Amino acid sequence: MRRRLVIGAVVVLVLGLLAVRRGRRETDVGKTARAERGAIERVVVASGTIEPEHLVEVRAKVSGIVQRFAADAGDRVTAGQVVAELDRETLDAAVREAHAALREMEVQRDQAGIEQGRRATLFARGLDAKETLDRAATEHAAGEARVAHAHATLERLEQELAYATITAPIDGVVLERELTTGDAVASVATVTGGTVIMTIADTSQMHLKGVVDENDIARVAVGLDARIRTEAYTDRVFPGRVRKIAPIGTRKNNVTSFNVEVTVLDGIEALSPRMSADADVVAEVHPDAVVIPEAALVYDGDDVLVDVVERRSPARVARRKVKVGIANEQRVEITDGLAAGDEVKLQ
Q1: What pLDDT digit, counting tens, does each position of 144-193 carry?
Q2: In this structure, which long-range contacts are made by residues 219-224, counting pairs with CB atoms below 8 Å and at least 24 apart in sequence?
Q3: How many whole angstroms separate alpha carbon 149 and alpha carbon 139?
Q4: Measured between alpha carbons, how far is residue 304 from residues 129, 155, 291, 301 in Å?
Q5: What is the pTM (predicted TM-score) of this model?
Q6: How far, in Å, CA of 151 to CA of 330, rounded?
Q7: Rounded CA separation 25/131 (Å)
């Protein structure tokens, strides 16, 4: 009986010790992280779209009706390649009419020249008046002027006929074809600036055209490296470099932003114009900083605090004021108040 009592007491003691240990574990502070030394970057995001270096809207230099297309959206074309033809029937007729008018003017001029020569002979013999000779000379000169005008008209109409054949102004890819066969086209000489037939882009060079908030623009400079991310390639980063910053901002809905262009340095062949993209511009790098997760920070007015975990028995948490440096979406640099290896509680 006594032995059973002793065994029972030992069991109770063991259970009590286990309960104490369990209680100590139950004082766990929750998720924590350790301050580490490492590199941290200050990144400024420029959000926008991928744009080709050169983009041209192809317009006709003469009005007419689209007879056929020789290129469609997605086709690659070279400068001078025929991409569309306008109906030539009316222009052909105008050229033939101009040829006939020129021939008529030449005949009239030649006839006036013959008459001038005849009058000059008669005047030399004293058989005609000087006034008559002068009229003949004037008529011949007028004939020459009419011939020159007819020549100019013919050249203009022949040029318009040539304009009915529309060629690509640059090497590139047809992004859009705005019209279909049979649609009417207005020339660039009209008040509307002409009808856009198709859009061609030179995709041999590409850049991101994005916007940066005015609060961050001071940290962006021409020549800074950038990482370009697209929605189309979520697992790929394209290297870039800032090449242009707008000197004046754009204000919309009481928010001012600045246009920024970032050249794509590699992987251009994988990108397409107008893709949505973001450029992470690396504005500043601290290679040997004390960093912790941003989730460890506690804000109290202007003060920034962290809960430092002290591993005692049981563990306890001490709130400490810190100074922060570079911060990004996940990590933050601590410039004062923590050392590498310190354990902090995540909020």
Answers
A1: 999 999 999 999 999 999 999 999 999 999 999 989 999 999 999 888 88
A2: 219/42, 219/44, 219/281, 219/283, 219/284, 220/44, 220/46, 220/245, 220/260, 220/281, 220/283, 221/245, 221/283, 224/281, 224/282, 224/283
A3: 15
A4: 112, 79, 14, 8
A5: 0.67
A6: 75
A7: 129
